[in-house]
Every structure is written in C-alpha cells, then in structure tokens.
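Why do we bother with holo predictions? Because pocket geometry can differ from the apo form. Keep that in mind while you read this record for nicotinamide-adenine-dinucleotide.
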Amino acid sequence: MAETLLINGQWVASSDGGTQDVTNPANGSVIRTISKGTAADVQAALEAATAAFPVWAGLSARERAAIMHRAMDIFRANLDEANRLLTQEHGKPLNDSNKENSYSADVIDFYAEEGRRLDGTHFAGDIGPTHSFVLRQPIGVVGAITPWNFPVDLLAWKLGPGLAAGCTFVIKPPSEAPLAATLFVKSFVEAGIPAGVLNIVTGPGRSVGAEIVTNPLSRKVAFTGSTATGLWIAQQAAQQLKPVTLELGGSAPFVVADDADLDMAVPEALRRTFSHTGQICISVNRIFVHRARYDEFTQRFADAASKLRVTADGLAEPDADMGPMINASAIETVVGHVEDALERGAAVLTGGQAPSGTQYAHGYFYLPTVLTNVNRDMRVMREETFGPLAPIAAFDTLEEGVEMANDTPYGLAAYVYTNDLDKAFYAAKHLRAGGVGINVNDITDIRAPFGGMKQSGMGRELGQPGLDAYMEYKHVRYRYRDPR
Ligand code: NAD
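The structure, written out:
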C-alpha cells in the first residue's frame, strides 16, 4: 500500500487502499506506485486545511516567510533528486527539469518577501470624525489543481502567493507527473510548516479534482489545465460564487514582420515551438511570416527543426532539444492535426512521423514537424495542438498578420519579431493575448502578471495580481470621538 497522500501533516494511504502507477513516457517503465485518493480523502484534507487556516493566517508575514525560505533551502538541497524525478515522470531533458525546479524555488522565495511588503490604503472619512482603512485578508482554503507539463512550477505559482497571503491548500497534482511536485511539498513539511496547511490528494480529476472544486470547504480554486476542464470548473464554482483563477489552453501566434532579424527569429521560434515537445501553454502553435520573408524563414526554420535532437533518455542527454510526449492521446491529437491539414492541402516540410530507432519503440515520440500551405479551416490553425507541430502561413501587411494571429478562441501568449518600433507597438497593442513578446520568446517573469484572454483563462498569476488573487478586501470604517 502506498502512503503518499499528505493529510493533516501525515503521509497516509488512500481511504480505500487504491493505488496508481506513475510511468516514464519515454519507455513505459513504472517509476513508482502512489496512492489513488478518493472523495473521502479530499473531505479529510479539506477539514485539515480548514482547521489549519487560523493557525497559518495568524502567523505574521515574516514568520510565514521564514518557513517558506527554509522549505526552499531544503528543496534546493534535494534538487538533483527532484530533477531526476521530473525527467523520469515527464520525459523532459534534465536541463529543462533543472530550470523548472530552480525557478519554482525562486517563485516561493519571491512571494515570501512580497507577503511582507503588503501595504494598504487608509483615508479620513467624509461623514464627520471617521477614518477608513482597507484590510487585505487571506481567502481561506484553496484547492490547487495542476497539469503534468509543469507540475512543480505551476504549483509554485499558486503556493507562493497563497501561502504568503495566509491561505491553506488541498493540492491535486497531475496523475501523470506527481512525484517531483510531492517532493516540493515535502520540503515545506520538513521546514516545519504547521500540519494541515498543505495537503496532497493525488487521484483522478473526475473524482478527486471534482470534489475539491465542488466541496463547500474550499473557498477558492486555482486551476491550470485544459480549457474544457476549466469551463467545467467555472460552472461548478459559479454555483457557490467561489472565486477561481483559471490558466487554460493557448494557441500562441509567432508573427514575423518584413524587417525582422531572422538570425534571431528562427532559433527563438524554434525553441518556443519545440521545447517540451511543444507541450507548453505558451508554445508557438501558429507562425505567420510576411510574404517577403516567407520562403527564407520557412526554409531556415524547417532545416533547423529537422536537426533537433529528440532524446529517449533525458537523464543521459540533459541538453537534448526535446523528449517524448506525455501519452498516447497526446500523440493522437498531433497525428489528427497533421492528417486533417494534409487532407485540406497542406504540405509537410519536415517530420510528420515518429522518429525511427529502437530507443523510441516503447515511448510516445513524434518528430518536430513543419507544415506549409495551411489555411484557417484546418484544425491545426483553430485548436491547441500541444505537440511538436508548426504550421507556417504568409501575410501581406502587418495588420493582416495580426488579424490572422487573433483568429483563434485562445489568447494567452503572442510573439512579434520586428526592428521597427511602430510595428512593434502596433502589434503589442492589437494582439489579443495576456502576454506579448517583442523580439523575445518568453513572456514569463515573476514580477509580471501571467494569464489569458478569451478562452485561455480568467484571472492572473505571478506579479502583484498573483498575490491579490488569494486575498479579499475588507473596508473598515471607524468613528472616533473628539476628546475636547
Ligand atoms: P487537464 O484539464 O486534463 O488536467 C489538468 C488537471 O485537472 C489534472 O490534474 C487533472 O487530473 C485535473 N482534472 C481533470 N478533470 C477534472 C475535473 N472534472 N475537476 C477537477 N479537476 C480535474 O489538462 P492537462 O492535459 O493535464 O494539461 C494540458 C492543458 O493545460 C493544456 O490545454 C495547456 O494549454 C494547459 N496549460 C495551461 C497553462 C496556463 O498557464 N495557461 C499552463 C500549462 C498548461
């Protein structure tokens, strides 16, 4: 029996003894067997988090920060183990795991200090001798539900601000990749965080995740995952007017203007399209290039894509460009998008199949793939692929390029490459996305809000808005007597 649930400070087995295997997507081997939690486990975890809330919220921000920093010292001391676990359960090369885990620790350290810097508003009243001040108080028990693509980082984005604000948590890590995230949480336990502040219940989304969302003891849901699940969560939470932060799917456009520096644009588009095997919410999903540069860009991009190194062992090849996809259904989506595009007249410039070689035989692999002759009716242009697939289309004016980029239900990230300030500002203003990169292929910065427009989500993580999302405002007005 696996004792991997964390409830009220204790590592326990699931209430019905259920277990699930965590496998390596690169070769199918079982890495570990963990508990498969139940709705009853969620209830127990929520009760523990409810009891711990006044304890944690009652500490000063400085005391909370001390525990958070201590936890990250412990996590950093175990970084090698965390990196290896993450590479085994997700498949990403070791250097990418190290980047994710290290960044996650930075996020916790950052918010530990931001919690201490919270200031407020106060003002003299306008109805006689009164004075007002505005308190910001923690929301309470938060249900945190995360996906497998950045299982540690996306948890840190929730725990950092939430713990700093004084909230307690019931966490549901993804079943595909729960191990490094559990080690991350264990660091807080070892750092002496009070029992019940952090609880983990692994298990299926439809039972464990759904219970976290619908149980009235959770006072907020912080979710990262697909738009379909996010829509369902929003509907459930609405029944209780429960606040939600939803970080959902994306279909990021990469717009290359006629004057762009291709020495910069090609490798940066490549990295943002294919790293993590395209399984990042801000991955480039569609590329739009000014017609004057289309042939040159496309040729260079496809050449470079065909040379990327796909590893079947991210531990042995830490600096490989990409690893496997997460599972069979992820591959099916990519194959479906490629087949649909080919039927509608697209051409494959490189890729379009699994890599050959015995090392790839037992994992979920697909080559970096580039499509041309694409149009807006193809699934690859309308849906999130979440895989190593790049369709490239041409535009004649930047205005048209931006319109094509915006022709999607999603609005998480967008990139534009140009050396013309006017074009850069035009694109930044008109691209409908929560983050726009101008000559830069990453819009993530701890200090800046991160999140989506349209069906990419609701609310923001990181930056000050990321902290606000875990607090409620309370206006306190008092009347005083003049002693004279
Ligand atoms: P998913 O929605 O299938 O699962 C995400 C999490 O939700 C998992 O832990 C899952 O078990 C749980 N879940 C599933 N059904 C649930 C339910 N009914 N109630 C509660 N929880 C439930 O998504 P995924 O396939 O794991 O992740 C990939 C998706 O995540 C992509 O669409 C990607 O774009 C998105 N994503 C978004 C961001 C962002 O910041 N916007 C970041 C990373 C990933």
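The domain at 252-438 is CATH 3.40.309.10 (Aldehyde Dehydrogenase; Chain A, domain 2).
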